[in-house]
Every structure is written in structure tokens, then in C-alpha cells.
Recover the amino acids of this structure.
């Protein structure tokens, strides 16, 4: 030891300060852990941690306050954007975001979602679309694809019987209070990097007082899709994107990416 | 009136959805709150509105919502969350006839819902039932104070009659929200402190058990410290009327109408419906022969009276559901029937 030169290490990768040093309860291959990390990295990089109040959903991410290292408050199922409205209007100088799944945002909370967006609330929303109800064990989501098997769509989702999958991001885009909506995915390195760029941009919309912004993330759920994590990535990339094409859905920010 | 009282009591956030007969309140606050730097939001629903209240109170504001019976049903989920998360808020219910969509006439049919929790879970909501505008003004202050002190939702329970009544009022001194004690649990960013989380989901059954015990202890403190009632002429009375809110005022007029004719009649008026003044009514009932219950419902507060009085006195009941407001003469007729036992108006309750 004594004769060898001391090794110098430079830290090039670590846990974001906005993530607590806890194990998550998420399944192997689940998109939530990745999405959490992206949100945490963006909040760190924008220097927002000490002024952030996050509102997680009911669903798989209900325990997000165990993982994020800033102020958080639980919301009843579907109500994060109403609750976040109350927070943001009370403390407008704080950074307020919601993190919601497809059932929370696009089924039980559809009204709260549309009206908060239409009011142009200065809130950022991260929308996890995995086309299934994860926490309750694989029932049909509002975003479940046609033909997709869920525990409540035996034989696959049928448009006539179960209704069509809903594309709420496109619906929200017609609201004048919305300044930015982009759909990304968590099913590959390139996609994940793009998702981070979009989340950061959505956060900037709030900081610049522009209006409501949302990033939809197509997110793998290997457990309830009954696939391996690798198969789940492939399914997002080859099947899910046909119903939910990736890309910018609305952008009136004027930002140059 | 309630709106101005709320602003003077330091309320700086209101969200609600229009419903008759209480629209004067949000209409007033829509102009008034911005004048004091507060926020008014007409929510897209009662559900959204109560959740906006959760957010606002969690961020430190004195916050209030209001509605009438069907709308209050929709708010029950949020009220349960407020109780579970131990967040203060004030909810005003201007009751109308029901069930279902019912009508828009004065009623007191939400007593069960208000006093028994209404939403899911093992919790209680303090319920204040003023019987006139002056008391309503004072109780609005009290509601915010109880909410803050015990970190609980508090309900102000009125009826459609009260919602439309105009009376002169002397407001208590205004409260500047800046002078209120700073709540050490609110969410305002974790600068210089550890992050906070506010939630009601407690998956560990032992922790949930402890949380329930903590809430129970709080409810026992509220019962010990905040139970309120009023009596009029109960000393030496043979008959005591039990009534609250607008019904109590009608009963008071009926008692005046009968004064000097027949036995002495007093009034016992619960002001907090939960906690109900059980002990006070019980000890009063030791010394009277008849208790006459009058309410704008098919018999809801009646159950609390039965639990308080038992067989210490005869209990009679006159309940008018559906939005009909009996006149003082009709209530006087009930009290005459109670006295004579002729059973013409109201009925005897066998315990």
C-alpha cells in the first residue's frame, strides 16, 4: 500500500439529493423507479428541492413520499391536481408537481385533471401510463390497449364492450391553459434521456409562469403484463406506441430545446 | 354573513361548487377574498373543492368550503382524509330536504351524516349548530379555532332558513392570519429542515391502531373541552324542549306563546351536535317529567336524546321532514299534546 500512488476517484454518478436512500417497493423492470429518478435529477438540477411540494397518486406510487426527499402530501384517488391547486394558490412561490398513474389521472380523476389543466394552473404533472391497474393486480385501465388482456378484460379489451382506450394527453392539448404536453417512454436508454429532457421542460413551464404542463411516460409493467422486463420494453416500443405515439403533443412555450 | 365572518376569522382560501340554498356565500367570497390577498376558486365539483381545501390547509392557509346536503355527501371522502391526515378545515353545510336531490327547502336531515362521521373510517367531526346570525358569526371564528387547535375538520351545520336570514350582527375583532400561531406541520418546502409528508395511509396495522388511538384521545379532549349548549327557562320546568338551530328559535317562540298557560316549559339547545351535550341533558332530565324533541327531520337528534335521557323522563317527538318549517303555533300544539298526553301532535317515544 505505502509504496503505491494514491488512487484519485472522481464521483461521476450518484443518488440525487432529491431521492431518499430507501429501497423502493417497485417490481423488477417497473418504470416508476426510473421515473422517480428522472424527477429527482430534474429537481436537483433546477435547484428546486427545498421549495418543492409533490403530490403522488393512489396506485403503485402512493408511497412515493418514502422515496422523494422533499415535502409531499398524499391525495385521495384521482384528486392530486385539485389538491395541488390548493397548494399552489396558497404558496405560489413554491414548486408544485403531481405524479399520477393512468387510473388516477385519466379515469377517476378525469374531471380534476381537465379542469386544473384548463385553468392553466402553474403545476407540472408527470403522468405514468402503463395501460394497466398495477397496485390492485392487473385490472383494465382507461388506457388499456384494444386486445390487451387484463384481469377484467378476459379475452382482451373489446372496443364495443369495454370502450376505447383514452388518449387524455391529446384531450388536454385542446385546453388553452395548457402550454406543453409531450409523450415519452421509459423503454430504452435513448427514450429515458428524452423523457428527462421533457420533464425538465415541463418544470420550466411552471418556473416561468407559463401555464400547465404534462409529460406522459409510457411505462413498462412486467408483472401485470406477465412479461420479462426486456419483453416489456419491447412491447412498449413495438405495440404501445402505435396507440400512444411518442412526441410533442402541444408546445406553445417558445423554448428552444 | 358567514363569508365575512370567515374572512375576519383569517380564512384566506375558499373553494366550492354552486348549490342552492347557499350560493350567497361563494358569491360574496368571490369578490371579498381577493381584497385581502386570499383565494377564491369555483371548483369543477364538490369533490375537487374539498381537495383544494386539503391542499390549501396543508400549505398553511385557514381554508373553508361550503355546500348543501347533496354536495356535502360528495365532500365526505375529503372530510375523512382531513380527519385521517389531521388537517384543520371548516365545512359549512346549509341543509336542504332529502334524500337524493331532494329539494331546496330548509331541513335538518343531515344530522346523522354530520355527527356520525359521514365519510369512512373511525373518526369524528366537531359540529357547530348556530341558531341565528349573531351566533353564526361568532361560531365561524370558533370553528376555525377548534379546527386549528385540534387539527380537525369542523362542520358548521345550518339550514336553508338560516342561509336566507338577514339579521344585524356585531362581528368579533378581525384576525390577521399573520398573527395566528405558525403550524409546524405544514408543507412549504424543506429549506432548513427535514422533508415532511402528510398522509393517511398507514399499512402497518399496529401503526394504524396507534393512529386511531391518537385520534380517539383527541376526540375525548374535544368532548371534554368543547361541548356547548344553551338553556332557556329550564329551572323549575316540567317540560323541556330539545331543539337546535332554526328549530330551537321556533320552539322558543312556541314556548313564549304558551307562557302562563299550563306547566312551565324550558328549552335545552345543543350548540355542538358532536360532541352532544349528553351529560348536561342527562342531569337536566333528572328533574323534569317530560322531554319534547323537535327537529326538521324524521328523528335523528332524537337518538342522541334517547341515549342521554333514557327512562329518566318521558320522551316525546315532533319531527317534520322534507323541508317543511312548522310555525310556532304548530310547535305550541305539539307542546300542548305533550302536556295533555293526547297524542294529537307528535308521538311518545318508548325507550
Amino acid at each position: 500500500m505505502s509504496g503505491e500512488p494514491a488512487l484519485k476517484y472522481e464521483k461521476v454518478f450518484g443518488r440525487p439529493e432529491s431521492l431518499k436512500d430507501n429501497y423502493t417497493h417497485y417490481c423488477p423492470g417497473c418504470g416508476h423507479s426510473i421515473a422517480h429518478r428522472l424527477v429527482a435529477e430534474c429537481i436537483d438540477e433546477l435547484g428546486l428541492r427545498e421549495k418543492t411540494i409533490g403530490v403522488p397518486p393512489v396506485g403503485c406510487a402512493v408511497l412515493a413520499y418514502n422515496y422523494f426527499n422533499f415535502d409531499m402530501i398524499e391525495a385521495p384517488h384521482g384528486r392530486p391536481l385539485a389538491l395541488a391547486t390548493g397548494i399552489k394558490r396558497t404558496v405560489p412561490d413554491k414548486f408544485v408537481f403531481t405524479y399520477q398513474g393512468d387510473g388516477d389521472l385519466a379515469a377517476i380523476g378525469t374531471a380534476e385533471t381537465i379542469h386544473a389543466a384548463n385553468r392553466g394552473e402553474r403545476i407540472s404533472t408527470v403522468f405514468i401510463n402503463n395501460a394497466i391497474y398495477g397496485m390492485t393486480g392487473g385490472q383494465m385501465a382507461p388506457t388499456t390497449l384494444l386486445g390487451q388482456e387484463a384481469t377484467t378484460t378476459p379475452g382482451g379489451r373489446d372496443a364495443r364492450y369495454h370502450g376505447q382506450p383514452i388518449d387524455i394527453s391529446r384531450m388536454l392539448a385542446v385546453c388553452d391553459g395548457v402550454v406543453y404536453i409531450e409523450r415519452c417512454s421509459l423503454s430504452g436508454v435513448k427514450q429515458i434521456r428524452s423523457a428527462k429532457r421533457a420533464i425538465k421542460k415541463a418544470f420550466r413551464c411552471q418556473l416561468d409562469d407559463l401555464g400547465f404542463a404534462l409529460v406522459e411516460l409510457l411505462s413498462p409493467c412486467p408483472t401485470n403484463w406477465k412479461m420479462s422486463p426486456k419483453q416489456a420494453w419491447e412491447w412498449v416500443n413495438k405495440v404501445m406506441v402505435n396507440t400512444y405515439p411518442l412526441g410533442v403533443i402541444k408546445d406553445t412555450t417558445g423554448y428552444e430545446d | 354573513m358567514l363569508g365575512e365572518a370567515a374572512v375576519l376569522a383569517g380564512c384566506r382560501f375558499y373553494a366550492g361548487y354552486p348549490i342552492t340554498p347557499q350560493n350567497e356565500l361563494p358569491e360574496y367570497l368571490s369578490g371579498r377574498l381577493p381584497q385581502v390577498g386570499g383565494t377564491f376558486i369555483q371548483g369543477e365539483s364538490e369533490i375537487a373543492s374539498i381537495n383544494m381545501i386539503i391542499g390549501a390547509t396543508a400549505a398553511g392557509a385557514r381554508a373553508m368550503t361550503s355546500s348543501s346536503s347533496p354536495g356535502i355527501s360528495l365532500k365526505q371522502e375529503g372530510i375523512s382524509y382531513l380527519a385521517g391526515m389531521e388537517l384543520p378545515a371548516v365545512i359549512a353545510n346549509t341543509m336542504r330536504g332529502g334524500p337524493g336531490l331532494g329539494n331546496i327547502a330548509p331541513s335538518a336531515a343531515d344530522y346523522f351524516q354530520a355527527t356520525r362521521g359521514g365519510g369512512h373510517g373511525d373518526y369524528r367531526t366537531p359540529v357547530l349548530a348556530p341558531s341565528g346570525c349573531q351566533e353564526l358569526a361568532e361560531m365561524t371564528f370558533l370553528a376555525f379555532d377548534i379546527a386549528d387547535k385540534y387539527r380537525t375538520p369542523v362542520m358548521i351545520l345550518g339550514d336553508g332558513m338560516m342561509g336566507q336570514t338577514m339579521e344585524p350582527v356585531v362581528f368579533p375583532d378581525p384576525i390577521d392570519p399573520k398573527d395566528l400561531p405558525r403550524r409546524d406541520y405544514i408543507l412549504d418546502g424543506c429549506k432548513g429542515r427535514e422533508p415532511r409528508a402528510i398522509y393517511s395511509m398507514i399499512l402497518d396495522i399496529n401503526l394504524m391502531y396507534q393512529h386511531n388511538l391518537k385520534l380517539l384521545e383527541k376526540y375525548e379532549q374535544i368532548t371534554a373541552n368543547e361541548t356547548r349548549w344553551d338553556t332557556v327557562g329550564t329551572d323549575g320546568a316540567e317540560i323541556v324542549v330539545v331543539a337546535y338551530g332554526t328549530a330551537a328559535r321556533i320552539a322558543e317562540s312556541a314556548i313564549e306563546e304558551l307562557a302562563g298557560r299550563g306547566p312551565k316549559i324550558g328549552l335545552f339547545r345543543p350548540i355542538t351536535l358532536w360532541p352532544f351535550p349528553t351529560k348536561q341533558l342527562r342531569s337536566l332530565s333528572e328533574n323534569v317529567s317530560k322531554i319534547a324533541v323537535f327537529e326538521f327531520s324524521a328523528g335523528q337528534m332524537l337518538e342522541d336524546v334517547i341515549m342521554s335521557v333514557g327512562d329518566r323522563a318521558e320522551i316525546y317527538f315532533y319531527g317534520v321532514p322534507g323541508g317543511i318549517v312548522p310555525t310556532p303555533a304548530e310547535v305550541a300544539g305539539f307542546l300542548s299534546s305533550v302536556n295533555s298526553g293526547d297524542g294529537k301532535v307528535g308521538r311518545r317515544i318508548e325507550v
In short: Chain A has a mean pLDDT of 97. Chain A is about 35% helix and 15% strand. Chain A touches chain B through 36 residues (CB under 8 Å). Strands of chain A lie at 52-55, 71-73, 95-101, 124-129, 178-185, 212-218, 247-251.
